[in-house]
Amino acid sequence: MMKPSNVLMLGNFEATKALGQKLGQNLPEGSVLLLKGDLGAGKTTLVQGIGEGLGITDAIVSPTFTLINEYHQGRLPLYHLDLYRLEPEAVAGLYLEQYWEEGEALPGITAIEWPEKLPYLPLNYLEIQLSYSEGTGRQAILQPVGDFCVNLSQIVQPFL
Ligand SMILES: Nc1ncnc2c1ncn2[C@@H]1O[C@H](COP(=O)(O)OP(=O)(O)O)[C@@H](O)[C@H]1O
Ligand SMILES: [Mg+2]
Predict the structure, then answer these.
(1) Contacts of 1 (CB under 8 A, 6+ apart)
(2) pTM above 0.85, yes or no
């Protein structure tokens, strides 16, 4: 059976970084990425790759305690959120729509770890589900939602 083309194999840490770099190079402003997966699945690693792809030179560190880290040195702003420590009621008060609605924050790329905590979802986004796979690698399943209209086929090609 043919493997569905939205299932990617990330054999090592470098592959997760490389997928992130491709996304960082190609995603348009206003893109929202919802990053699902257990602790250690590679969500932050992927965002580090996105930062590199955007040309951000500052170190991208996990926003587990800061909640939101913003980077403005790249091709587009990067907003990196980690909602792990929050309850959905608390997330509702953060007014996160500012990151994806027009006329609010400078349009950039918004990457959200633990999006299960969001009380509401953006209309258009790319969901990336990371999981442990055989051996030491990871699997990523990409699911565009709404009219997230980026040509993913070119981005995912090296990872099929
Ligand atoms: N494709 C991969 N194969 C093996 N190890 C990986 C892969 N991607 C990331 N890792 C490693 O797994 C860990 C993931 O950590 P992190 O990215 O912080 O995960 P999360 O943010 O999902 O909790 C890091 O030690 C990283 O080096
Ligand atoms: Mg993380």
Answers:
(1) none
(2) yes
> Residue 78: which pLDDT band, with cuts at 50, 70 and 90?
very high
How many Å lie between the centroid of ligand 2 and the Cα of residue 2? Answer: 31
Q: Is the CB of 41 under 6 A from ligand 1?
A: yes
Q: Domains for the chain: give ranges and CATH numbers.
A: 6-159 (3.40.50.300)
From the CA of 45, the nearest ligand is 1
Sign, CA dihedral 44-45-50-55, equals positive
Calpha distance 13→85 (Å, rounded): 25
3-state class of 152 per DSSP? helix
Say how far apart CA 37 and CA 49 lie, in whole Å: 17
46 CA: nearest ligand 1 atom:
17
The radius of gyration of the chain's CA atoms, rounded to the nearest angstrom, is 15
Task: For residue 7, list its beta bridge partners.
Answer: 141
| Averaged confidence pLDDT in the chain | 93
Q: Coil, strand, or helix at residue 88? A: helix
pLDDT tens figures, 121-142: 999 999 999 999 988 999 999 9
